[in-house]
Fold this sequence. Notes:
There is one protein chain. Helix 2 runs antiparallel to helix 3 (96-114), helix 7 (213-224) crosses helix 9 (281-293) and helix 12 crosses helix 13. The protein has a 3-stranded antiparallel sheet with strand order 1-2-3. It has a 3-stranded antiparallel sheet with strand order 4-5-8, with no helix packed on it. A hairpin with a 5-residue loop joins strand 2 (24-31) and strand 3 (37-44). The protein has helices at 47-67, 77-91, 96-114, 124-137, 140-159, 186-198, 213-224, 228-232, 281-293, 314-327, 335-350, 352-359, 364-370, 381-385, and strands at residues 15-18, 24-31, 37-44, 239-240, 247-250, 253-255, 263-265, 275-278. It is elongated and about 115 Å long. The N and C termini lie far apart (116 Å). It is mainly alpha-helical. It contains 14 helices and 8 strands. The protein has 3 domains: 9-67; 77-159, DNA polymerase, domain 1; 186-200 and 210-370, Intergrase catalytic core (hpI Integrase, Chain A), CATH 1.10.443.
Amino acid sequence: MARPRTPIGTFGEIYFEKTHDGRARALTRFRDYDGQLRRVQATADSPKAAERKLKEVLAARNEQNVGQGELTAASSFRHLVDVWLADLDLEDALAPSTRALYERNMRRLVLPAFEHYALREISVRKVDQFIKTLAKTKSYSMAKQARTVLSLAFALAVRYDAIRENPVRDTARLRKPPAQAMSLTVEQVEQIRRAVRGWRRGPGVPGPPPDGQLEQIIEVMLGTSARIGEVLAIRKCDVDVTTTPATARLCGTIVSPAGKPTHRQPHPKSMKSTRTVSVPSFTAEVLRARLVMIASEEPDHLIFFTRNGTPLTTNNIRRRLRAVLHEAGIEGVTPHSFRRTVATVLDRAGGADLAAEMLGHTSSKITKQHYIEPDEAVDPVTAEILEALAPRQVGEA
């Protein structure tokens, strides 16, 4: 056997020998995807040609291993995305809606910017500039979501020894633009109620009138503080109108995973959001009316449902509400506006802790920051206290 030539990368040293017909054979050992060292060889008319052919064989073998889930610094970012998504499915720790959101954000926001790079080419600077540009040209929310999925994917690359450090970790902190939670006034709530009650009803309106569920859903949102998905997931067995006040248990949400039918998820947005709330009389009245409609149904039948008895989708309710309010000249109101309104009303009467408990938050910090409209009014007792600074009359001490 001839003397070894220069080693090539991680494939080990190449050795040469002559075949029985006088040709050259190049040989080396290659560590396969399962960790086993295997002999790989290639034959050609000359040692140089045999070496070139062996390198081609090794490159193809290495590419095959990468295709089986291996990651290296030379792997493409697109391949990392495929491996990361497969790993999410293997862990199976995310709610289907969250898993779908992660994939959508990765493919729509991130992949177009990095798909042609190898992992070793993606620096902190590239990631930092991408996130800042996204925040400036799109929105803070989009940039934050892109940063999240990028960080998760690169964390997997670190665990797979493809890169040494996560480039997202050292990017600049995203600065959230200042914003205030805005709740609805009592007058605005009444305006919305009138608009919904009068939508597509009256003489000369073609087609059947609405089924009345939208206005009922609004009353339940106002009386429970529940998210739209939680309201649509309330079942017959979750409601008790025999007590005073009536109660509703919020223990699920409606989800519409991509490529799958809309269905009820057996827990809300988070497991800690499960709660039983006492509802005001106007909400109890709606719940009683819905229970009468489904009196003969099974206990797990939904309170709100389509004509076919299937779950209503959150997107359809949002779309219908938007159409109704746009027609009435009311803009900027979403289902979450009712949740903020509940939080603000409860804060004014009972404090932020009570509002947080009602909304299913573990801390009032989130409630204050995102749901309670700041109160600009200062306690009027200040006027009485400051009377001490009133100007003195002539002759007064």
